[in-house]
Write a structure and sequence with these properties.
alpha/beta; 7 helices; 44% helix; globular
């Protein structure tokens, strides 16, 4: 038999454009879950995974899907171990996200959160200036500029940081986890 829900692991998978607020939401959610206690919390940020697990990969569709599959494998293993996993890659292709959901669903809870911040706001939020470099043609195949981002059709939650505060988005994620019994009442 499976352990009770509050002992089972889960993954919150945040997807969205570069500079959409995914990482800020992920970090704030990590703080909230650490305060909740009772399980370890792991953060898988897109750039960290790229650097640590997928440094040999480029940005073709195939290579992006391999990167997302690796994130899915790690998320499923953490979930199986009873951890809370927060993943925040761009993950632009629906098929790759669906495969991660299938992988994690076998081991615990999976929540797809679409950080649907509009492109114009992402460009404004981009401190590193990579959007401008992509617009200028210095970077090819950049998601949202000259490569597609397939918005999820049925995310568990859709959020836009231009309309909702990060703390409110985190609260909405916490409510989903409470509703399904993964974490206790606050």
């Amino acid at each position: 038999a499976n352990p009770p829900r509050d002992k089972q692991g889960f993954t919150v998978f945040l997807t969205g454009l570069h500079a959409s607020g995914k990482e800020a939401i992920a970090r704030a959610l990590q703080v909230a879950l650490n305060q909740e206690g009772g399980r370890s919390v792991s953060l898988l940020l897109g750039e960290t995974i790229r650097h640590e697990l997928s440094s040999e990969l480029g940005y073709t569709k195939r290579e992006r899907n391999i990167n997302v599959a690796r994130i899915g494998f790690v998320a499923a293993e953490l979930t199986r171990a009873g951890a809370a996993c927060i993943a925040a890659p761009i993950a632009p292709y629906d098929e790759a996200r669906q495969l991660v959901r299938q992988q994690v669903d076998k081991t615990g809870g999976f929540y797809l959160v679409h950080v649907a911040t509009p492109l114009e706001a992402c460009i404004k939020n981009d401190r590193a200036g990579v959007y401008q470099r992509a617009i200028n043609g210095e970077i090819k195949g950049f998601t949202g500029i000259d490569d597609v981002y397939e918005a999820p059709e049925n995310p568990d939650l859709s959020a836009d940081i231009t309309k909702t505060s990060i703390s409110q988005i985190v609260h909405e994620i916490i409510l989903l986890l409470e509703r399904d019994g993964y974490i206790g009442d606050r």
